[in-house]
Amino acid sequence: MIDVVNAWKSYKSGTRTVDALRGIHCHIDRGRFAFIVGPSGSGKSTLLYMLGAVDRPTQGEIFVDGENLVAMSEAAQNVYRREKIGFIFQSFNLINNLTAVENVLIPFLPRGVTAQQRADAAELLTRVGLGDRLDHRPYQLSGGEQQRVAIARALVKKPLVVLADEPTGELDSKTGDEIYKILRSLQEAYHTTLVVVTHDRRFINPHDLVLEIQDGQLVGGPNGSPASSEVSNGLPAEVRAAE
Ligand SMILES: Nc1ncnc2c1ncn2[C@@H]1O[C@H](COP(=O)(O)OP(=O)(O)OP(=O)(O)O)[C@@H](O)[C@H]1O
């Protein structure tokens, strides 16, 4: 469902060029829980935001649900992000003067909120354990509760893919466990594809897809072994089969 084909990303700063991604190939099936792991500065966030069409690769193609993100106009990319992608950030990114339910409804605000959407938002907040805090504002919620609101906001439009950048980076480990439990149960309920950047491999389950990046290139998975049947040495299964 997601296919990244020879993606390169170079940033120029002054006379220096940084190759943040150096020929990434990977495939993520619909409904997978995929992790992007690797050292600081290895290109994890760069890859994640490419999947969200926040930025374009310098070279290569990125296909999501049959659409080539690289060939899209900016307007089409905006529609893609709005309709198909839910984002979850490390620092929650909630709006302080809106209530929890209003924060969840943010994706719908530009076009006006329907009664059904309001009901969906309340239901999602109940699912993440905040049914009694719909009208709380972010500063009245703990970090873990704020991240649960952000998760509900990412899922309320039933996106094809949820992209999360260090979603537990600002939370203690017990709260982190709760957040992953919630992410996994929502993923099961909504059949969403989840791609998560993390430093913390504790949250990775054996059947998850692990994309390990070093210096902008995919390498083997945890413990140096191929992380899953889908990726080995950075090549998608169909490419390996053709070798
Ligand atoms: N806008 C930018 N301009 C210039 N260089 C950038 C830009 N964004 C990222 N980089 C560089 O690209 C490389 C990869 O960055 P990226 O943020 O993807 O790494 P990361 O693996 O997510 O790191 P971390 O775990 O520390 O968040 C780094 O060397 C970074 O400095």
Automatic annotation (TrEMBL):
InterPro entries, from UniProt?
Answer: AAA+_ATPase, ABC_transporter-like_ATP-bd, ABC_transporter-like_CS, MacB-like_ATP-bd, P-loop_NTPase
Q: From what superkingdom does this record's organism come? A: Bacteria
Stretch list, region Disordered = 220-243
* Record's GO cellular component terms: membrane protein complex
Q: What is this protein called?
A: Lipoprotein-releasing system ATP-binding protein LolD
Query: Which family would the database say this protein is a member of?
Result: Belongs to the ABC transporter superfamily. Macrolide exporter (TC 3.A.1.122) family.
ABC transporter domain: from which residue to which, for each copy? 2-240
> Single GO molecular-function term?
ATP hydrolysis activity
The record's keywords, sorted A to Z, are: ATP-binding, Hydrolase, Lipoprotein, Nucleotide-binding, Transport
